[in-house]
């Protein structure tokens, strides 16, 4: 199967810039804001949003990377026991937590992330920012901030490549 490029580095930069502005519009009190990036690429995207917010507002908002593995719904109990370990060092109580991820598909990753966040505290609100929403949700989850809606078939795969991980920025479909 061949891989086709849908978006280039410039597109990705524009999407992130727009999302950063939208976040600032929706959450004007930056003391309230916490970014949680889903490892791995979501964490790098969250760092880019953090840099943009710093550039626009002069405030470095707190950020934490989250590995959702112990919270997945398709792993056995032995792995689930890892849940007992503290996953967040930041205080999430009374914050507006923005989960950041690359692709939103079934919604199961985000369900796991919300479980991890709720285990760690009681935020005032949890919001979701994704670069690509490709549809096919299996849970009642939607994104508040979306880079691009890309309608797909079940058979297709969307990949967000990032310079930090993959050497270049691009969004592809296979
Ligand atoms: O909405 P969902 O159906 O949960 O799919 C979205 C998730 O799938 C991908 O992660 P994946 O588990 O493929 O791991 P990867 O990021 O290491 O590729 C992607 O990074 C999202 O986190
Ligand atoms: O197409 C998909 C589905 C889930 N996660 C991805 O990164 N791409």
TrEMBL record:
The keyword Glycosyltransferase applies. The keyword Glycosyltransferase applies. It holds the Pfam family Pribosyltran. It comes from the Bacteria. Keywords: Glycosyltransferase, Transcription, Transcription regulation, Transferase. Signal peptide: none annotated. InterPro entries: PRTase-like, PRTase_dom, PyrR, PyrR_bifunctional. It catalyses: UMP + diphosphate = 5-phospho-alpha-D-ribose 1-diphosphate + uracil. GO terms for biological process: regulation of DNA-templated transcription. It is an enzyme of class 2 (transferase). Residues 6-156 form the Phosphoribosyltransferase domain. GO terms for molecular function: uracil phosphoribosyltransferase activity. Its EC number is 2.4.2.9. A motif (PRPP-binding) lies at residues 97-109. Regulates the transcription of the pyrimidine nucleotide (pyr) operon in response to exogenous pyrimidines. Belongs to the purine/pyrimidine phosphoribosyltransferase family. PyrR subfamily. This is Bifunctional protein PyrR.
